[in-house]
Write a structure and sequence with these properties.
245 residues; mainly alpha; 13 helices; flat
Length: 245
Amino acid sequence: MNTNWERSRRSWLARNRLALISAAAIAAYAIFVEWVWGWPVLLRQWAEIGVGPVLSALALLVATYFIRCYRIHDYFPGETRGRFLSLFRVTQVHNLLNIMLPFRAGETSFPLLMRSEFGVPLVRGTAALFVMRLLDLHALLTVAAVGLVAGRGQGAIGWVLWLIAFLSPLAFLLMKEKALTVMRRVAPAKAGPLLDEAEAGLPIGIPAFLRAWAMTMLNWAVKVVVLAWVLAIMGVAPLAASFGG
């Protein structure tokens, strides 16, 4: 009887592990906020801004998580088809662990979660995460640089440099095949399957890459615009400083 009960408990924990991790991360985050700032202080500041702007900002930020979720679904359409809510939960657990764990250690959870929930091999998930983070970094810098270029008033030269930086990910697409060919040439024969899995985690073809790039730019554009809006409401000026903040 005890054996059946233990099996039932293990089965329940296996089915609800993501929900338990999410609840634990949210509780830890709430405790951290209370310890550092205090929820009454934050709620009072939000009340001073106004309910409408706060709810609008939160709605836009939540929408960006659906964009990120769609981007991952586009990377792994076969594995995630028909399981959007499960994928959304995975992305939120990954995000919470990134917030809670130091030095971005939570990033390691993404390939592990994708393997446990959707059967995606670790190497493939890690390769996809690497590309997504490079696109994230590029999008964050270029979107934020809009405010910096506009604020410095450098005119056409500044915008030309910004456009070159904006289009730089296309170089990755042009170099991908050559880089993989060189890696296969110099890598040991045993590494061939690993390189195949890594290649499977990269965008396949121009349309897939452009979709990933567009979703990334949209995600960070919304985030940075919301940040600039909130900072402007809080009295940070000029707008270029809020946008580049």
